[in-house]
Amino acid sequence: MYSEVVMDHFKNPRNVGEMKDADGVGEVGNPICGDMMTIYIKVKDDSIDDISFLTFGCGAAIAVSSIITEMAKGKTIVEAQQITNKSVAQALEGLPKNKLHCSNLGADALQLAIRDYQDKKAGIVRDGPKRSDKHEHNHGDACYCPYCDVEADEKAPACTNCGRELDEAH
Amino acid sequence: MSILNLDHLAANPLLPEVQDAMIEAIKKNYSNPSSQHQLGDEAVAALQQAREQVARLINSPVLKEVVFTSGGTESINHAVKGVAFANESKGKHIVTSNIEHNAVLRTLRALKMMDFRVTSVPVDEYGRVDPNDLADAIRDDTILVTIMHSNNEIGTIQPIEEIGEITRAKKVIFHSDAVDSVGVVPMDVQKLGVDLLSFAANQFYGPSGVGGLYIRRGTRIWPLLDGGVQENNKRAGTENLIGIIGMGVAAEFATREMEFRIKHALKLKQKLTEGLQSRIEDILINGHPELALPNLVSVSVKYIEGEGIVLMLDEENIAVSTRSACAAGALQASHVLLSIGRDFADAQGTLVITFGRDTTEAEIDRFLKVLEEVVQTLRNMSPLYIKARQEKAEGAAAS
Q1: Are strands A143-144 and A130-132 parallel, antiparallel or unpaired?
Q2: Which domain holds residue B305?
Q3: Where a domain ends, among B225, B254, B283?
Q4: N or C, which terminus of chain A has less Cβ within 10 Å?
């Protein structure tokens, strides 16, 4: 089901753990959706000096979190802002279609962590880390029917291909 | 290293005796049981023998009441749709429970599109239906009650006998999906008071692709498949004789070994349950502590997700099943686990461990040891775990 790169990152995840003195923290997801990710960054000279993650989720979610820490580490903030969920999936040599949606939240978490860092630097105080638990489709990818893997209309109550009901959490 | 199969519910190996009987049946090249000539006679005799073996397993007094099908799913579809279509003029209302298998749920969904109405009764924290709720749900236009015998995710066994008394008193047809029970626990269709009972051979070391439907004489039901007069006019199509022969032998061994198998399974179940509780903190054992299948343990491991556990165990050559939404491809937490009160996160971390007659205590020990490590590895990555640990530490510091 998963590519070798995914399995490698799942089995040997890089940069795992909480970062107590992080400069920016981004959280995405909720258990209803299935996955939760937290990305911590430490910034030095406008570059990501250190990065780590915590993830509740399936094999794909863990691999996504792991590879994004590698992709972002050492990059300038501007460079790191170019990382998208799509480029993460490409770096992993693809993800199963239904995982593209629910597990591929790493870039969202990274961007939230960067925004958190920028807010802090600008003196904007918020309650807790930046987080998003809304079911957002801001990654530009379409939704796929979990049953037949065909692209699904986000607003349709059922898959137009196989006829199965799609609930709001699809 | 060979793979340790703790996912017997998904795939039971064939008994060697079943393999032998099926290979012999293939070599014998049986003819069609419907044929009028001598070649057909041998096939008829083989079919009859298998029917006797299966009838004994469920204590069906009349051989004709056992109909061979292509498996549990067909049996369930046959029972539910067959009763719905045959009794439409009496009413279009069906009663079921909140924790049925998809074979029942989706069959009912199809019937809803044909204007049938369905009432689904809740279950308690152990997954048991209250017969009083069920009695209240039955209306004048109720034509069918369908309640599973045991649940495939948590193992809980339903009060089928009590429900059978209610349906008989109210003259409503009663079907039970007993796919995970037949061949595993004693089954007596006369005592249970069911009119219809679905079951499958692969749950008791027979082949997949063959199952049975018990149809009590006099039950108003249509065939699901129309065609020839096979199976006493109840199921058209040339019989899968090789599979049926395999099922018959598996049924005979299940009857013979039932007592031993249950005793063995209960021993492993106790060992596994106690081992989980002593080795891993913050887990929830699902299902009824006594009224449940002996060969299944369902456990919700807090703070982590099931697919990760399954993949990591697979690396260690251990096969288990998870009820995590991601792994199931459903993107939705299990309706069974939510129905017994588990929250979304706990439902995501649920494993279903099923074992068999050949599983050993040493294998359970090995599983527990590996699982303990895997759980800790995944928990160390989990924001839910880190948070819970901090809260615990703060709680301890405060007190």
Answers
A1: unpaired
A2: 4-9+258-398
A3: B254
A4: N
What does the DSSP assignment read for B210-247?
Answer: -EEEEE-TT-----SS-SS-HHHHTS-S---HHHHHHH
Indicate whether B205 pLDDT > 50: yes
Q: Are residues B121 and B55 in the same domain?
A: yes
On whether both B83 and B205 belong to a single domain, the answer is yes
Cα–Cα distance measured from residue B262 to residue A127, given in angstroms and rounded to the nearest whole number: 56
A99-132 residue pLDDT tens: 776 677 899 999 999 999 999 999 887 766 666 6
Of B193, B223, B254, which residue sits at a domain end?
Answer: B254
Which residues 52-111 in chain A show a CB within 8 A of chain B? 53-62, 98-99, 102-103
Partner-chain residue, chosen from B303, B327, B386, that has the shortest CB–CB distance to A58? B327
Residues B383, A56: C-beta atoms closer than 8 Å: yes
Distance from CA of A83 to the nearest CA of B (A): 22
Fold of A4-132: Sufe protein. Chain: A (3.90.1010)
Distance from CA of B350 to the nearest CA of A (A): 12
Helix and strand counts by DSSP (H, E) for chain A? 6, 6
Q: From the candidates B109, B307, B335, B384, which should be mutated to test the interface with A, based on the most A CB atoms within 10 A?
A: B307
Q: What is the pLDDT of residues A14-43, one digit of tens each?
A: 999 999 999 999 999 876 667 899 999 999
The size of chain B, in residues, is 399
CATH of residue B161's domain is: 3.40.640.10
Selecting among B326, B327, B368, B388, the annotated active-site residue is: B326
Q: What is the pLDDT of residues B188-203, one digit of tens each?
A: 999 999 999 999 999 9
What are the structural domain ranges in chain A?
4-132, 140-170
Task: Look up the pTM and report it.
Answer: 0.89
- The answer to whether the beta carbons of residues B148 and B177 sit under 8 Å apart is yes
> CA of B383, closest CA in chain A: separation in Å?
5
Place of tokens 């196989």: A162
Contact: B383, A99; criterion CB under 8 Å: no
